Amino acid sequence: MDAVNLLDYDLEGLTAFCEQLGEKRFRATQLFRWIHQKGATDFDQMSDLAKSLRSKLQGVATLKRLSVISEHMSSDGTIKWLFDVGGGNAVESVYIPEDDRATLCISSQAGCAVGCRFCSTGHQGFSRNLSTGEIVAQLWHAEHVLRQRLGTSDRIISNVVMMGMGEPLQNYSALVPALKVMLDDHGYGLSRRRVTVSTSGVVPMIDRLREDCPVALAVSLHAPTDPLRDQLVPLNKKYPIAELLAACNRYLDKAPRDFITFEYCMLQEVNDAPEQAHELVRLLKNKIGCKINLIPFNPFPASGLIRSTHPRVQAFAEVLIQAGIVTTVRKTRGDDIDAACGQLAGEVQDRTRAHIRMVRAPVTVAKSA
Ligand code: SAH
Ligand code: SF4
To answer: Whose CA is nearest to atom 16 of ligand 1?
Structure first.
């Protein structure tokens, strides 16, 4: 039997696993703290666990870290890691330090099946879901490698955004335990407000997340009307804007914040006209607690799309702000190393199109919480 990867478990899962081994529940908490808080890589380091338990674990369990293909650091301090997840697939995580926080942007899938027109991950197609352990290992790596490098035992990562490769709500069963590890006081102890799931709008899963693990929610809107959104985010044909906004309103009952962040990628002469800003105002104003985050499009060759000019972005933002909608323009980080959330371009074995593609594109980085 293959050894169990302990990074696959939230505390509840680890407790059940320890009970199966005939161990008391509190042993699971100790083990969990060793793994996530102290970054232990070896059971022998876990000095307050009985020797008998440590040797039991050696036989049946493992801590499966991701192997790093490359690491790039930008002049602004942003770090991008490319991780090998096997089978010709690689995913990326991006660390974004700022004055008052440090955000890690995490991937949830190798590739993505949604296929948004402006997204290089979407253009690569879908290979597979990441496991809980593979999602958690990205945070484990950033937190503990950076602690070691900086010679500190203080917490490094304060915010997580699920804005790397993939659609997190299409990998729901792996996502939720990973979120629980991030939130757990014995794990990374992040507050719900500082963990953001970004989705292209998988309506039934927004409802489930509301029940199971209501963290901050960002929704990739990108268009004020269904005909245009159908073209940009194909999932809109299944879950049109009215249904999506209704789900967002339901989510707000349990959300840790009183607004949803709507992301809007600015595409020259596609969705960036002042009239479209007015349509967006009519769609959202007084209908839902929201903030709008305008993202300058990061072009890549296959997209055939162009980034909106700065004056067009400003004019669009002005309409929203005048209407009283809180609006930010996302700043780009890590441009010199092609790092960013949402536009990451690992290497994906596309199971739907059966060839390997590699696309690299500079991307913008989320600013949340
Ligand atoms: N699948 C999820 C999360 C990953 S994408 C989602 O779509 O929300 C994270 C963010 O990056 C999304 O808002 C997405 O629209 C945005 N994004 C994708 N491609 C981009 C590009 N080329 N330029 C700028 N932002 C992009
Ligand atoms: Fe997938 Fe998000 Fe990219 Fe759309 S924007 S293809 S949902 S990763």
So the answer is: 342
Residue corresponding to tokens 């919480």: 369
Q: Which two tokens stand for residue 185?
A: 């006081």
Query: Would you list the DSSP string of 326-352?
Result: EEEEPPP--GGGT--SS----EEEETT
CA-closest candidate to residue 349, choices 107, 167, 127, 134? 127
Q: Which of 205, 171, 182 is nearest to 103 (CA)?
A: 182
308: how many CB neighbours lie within 10 A of its CB? Answer: 24
Indicate if ligand 1 lies below 6 Å from the C-beta of 298: yes
pLDDT, one tens digit per residue, over 118-132 is 999 999 999 999 999
39, 144 Cβ separation under 8 angstroms: yes
Does the beta carbon of 119 sit less than 6 angstroms from any atom of ligand 2? yes
Q: Report residue 101 CA to chain centroid gap.
A: 16
Ligand 2 contacts CB of residue 296 (under 6 A): no
Residue of 341, 122, 349, 42 lying closest to 218 (CA atoms): 341
CB 127 within 8 A of CB 113: no
The catalytic position among 23, 92, 263, 347 is 92
* Locus of tokens 């719900």: 192
Alpha helix positions (H), the chain: 11-20, 25-36, 51-60, 120-124, 132-150, 172-183, 203-212, 226-232, 241-252, 274-284, 310-322
- Bridge partners of residue 83, in order along the sequence: 68, 91
Condensed to tens digits (0 to 9), the pLDDT of residues 342-361 reads 455 555 666 554 332 333 33
**Phi-psi sector, 201: left (phi>0), alpha (psi -120 to 50), beta:** left
Cα separation, 234 vs 267, in Å, equals 16
Q: Is the pTM here over 0.85, yes or no? A: yes
In this predicted model, what pLDDT tens digit does every residue of 193-219 receive, in sequence order? Answer: 999 999 999 999 999 999 999 999 999
For residue 59, is pLDDT > 70?
yes
- Looking only at the bridges linking them, the beta strands covering 260-266 and 159-162 are unpaired
Query: d(Cα 345, Cα 218) in Å, to the nearest integer?
Result: 21
